[in-house]
Design brief:
The protein is globular, with a radius of gyration of 23 Å. A 6-stranded mixed sheet has the order 2-3-1-4-5-6, sandwiched between helices. It is α/β, with parallel strands linked by helices. Helix 9 packs parallel to helix 10. The longest helix is centred in the first third of the chain and has 23 residues. Bound molecules: 3,4-dihydroxybenzoic acid. 3,4-dihydroxybenzoic acid (DHB) binds next to loops.
């Protein structure tokens, strides 16, 4: 009896060890993005950026196979939270990522804190998000970071009065407050701060009010997927003819939609962390490969967020030598530094926030297309 059982047990335990070893060889990365609904463009761009990074850099890090699990939250926070829970509990994802809108990121904070699973923010830009959990890390931007340099530039370049109009939620309020603080510190005056609903916005009454106040410039923030529709209304309402400039962070002048906005946006000056025209070898390669893989569409800030988010995950895993346990992995994100298509990017070791250049750019025609041409740099801006 003994002689028979022993080899069977030995074989069984060998099988068990084999299964464990195989299971450990895969690191699952959840990517939760709005693939449908009004923010679907953000999901498409984020996933395209993440997949491009994997296509160009392989799917193995420190001997572990990286498996990307894409989930569609439709842009609804309750869905984001449920998908995050499923990814962590059922799929055993080592890290989750994505978050195409601020409320979608905020929704997973308590969950990742409890589960000790890092969450990499590829888009959401409200300043307060990352401090709400020790397991958040952000590769995108914050709105105060994006906005303040542009406010300073506007004040120094003949713009004395501004009306601001933003989407009425976290990043909009952050942009509005940051613009007003910097612009007025530099001697300008914000005449009025207008807020349009995030969902199904009708900008018409706000734009009419802004125009009636006759400011030198209108400062606009909307989430990038809404850029085309807000700018069409701004141009249709005759802001250029009334000599009212449009300023602010680059979201309302989204790179993917810029060409379709037409010549009415020529000369517009905004501040932002990324332009598809950023002049570097990394960006030229990124833009060319992205266009090839995505029907010749132009990458934007969200695509770069997906790309850099995957880079951060690869680099953190390489640093832990493939150890994907949450507390080790979150430590490894701190202090990462690399050359992104946007320029140099560092994850601040204390705050887990992106430190990056913010560029002042002007819309110009180049090779027959409209581009944001960077002409001044505010280096290494902290959020
Ligand atoms: C947010 C979303 C965007 O699409 C954007 O361009 C900036 C901020 C957000 O919800 O935080």
């Amino acid at each position: 009896m003994k002689q028979i059982i022993a080899p069977v047990l030995a074989a069984a335990s060998l099988l068990a060890i084999g299964a464990t070893a195989r299971a450990q060889e895969v690191v699952k990365v959840g990517l939760i993005a709005p693939m449908t609904g009004p923010q679907a463009a953000a999901g498409r761009q984020m996933v395209a950026g993440a997949k491009l990074y994997m296509a160009l850099n392989g799917n193995t890090v420190a001997g572990k196979k990286i498996e990307l699990l894409v989930r569609d939250d439709t842009g609804v926070a309750d869905v984001t939270r449920r998908l995050a829970q499923e990814l962590i509990v059922n799929d055993k994802a080592a890290v989750i990522s994505g978050f195409g809108l601020t409320p979608l990121a905020i929704a997973v904070g308590p969950l990742i804190t409890q589960a000790k699973v890092p969450a990499v923010i590829m888009v959401a830009g409200t300043a307060s998000i990352v401090a709400s959990s020790p397991y958040f890390v952000r590769v995108s931007f914050t709105l105060p970071q994006q906005t303040a340099p542009g406010a300073e530039w506007a004040a120094a370049n003949g713009i004395k009065t501004v009306v601001s109009m933003v989407s009425d939620y976290g990043p909009g309020l952050d942009a509005q407050n940051a613009f007003k603080a910097k612009f007025e510190e530099k001697g300008g005056k914000v005449l009025e701060q207008l807020r349009a609903p995030l969902v199904n916005p009708d900008f018409a009454p706000f734009l009419q009010r802004a125009k009636d106040l006759k400011p030198d410039a209108l400062m606009v923030f909307v989430p990038a997927p809404v850029a085309g529709s807000v700018m069409r209304q701004v141009l249709d309402r005759g802001f250029p003819e009334a000599k009212i400039k449009v300023v602010g962070p680059g979201d309302a002048f989204d790179d993917e939609q810029l060409n379709a906005m037409g010549d009415g946006v020529l000369g517009s000056v905004t501040s932002y962390n990324y332009s598809a025209a950023h002049d570097s070898a990394e960006n030229k390669k990124f833009v060319a490969e992205y266009r090839k893989a995505n029907n010749e569409t132009r990458p934007n800030v969200i695509a770069v967020g997906g790309y850099d988010g995957m880079h951060a995950i690869y680099a953190a895993l390489a640093k832990t030598n493939g150890d994907s346990t949450g507390p080790k992995l979150i430590e490894a994100f701190k202090g990462l530094s690399w050359e992104s298509p946007r320029g140099p990017l560092t994850i601040d070791a204390q705050t887990r926030e992106p430190v990056q250049n913010i560029y002042i750019r002007r819309v110009e025609r180049k090779d027959g297309e409209l581009y944001h041409i960077e002409f001044a740099t505010y280096p290494n801006q902290k959020p």
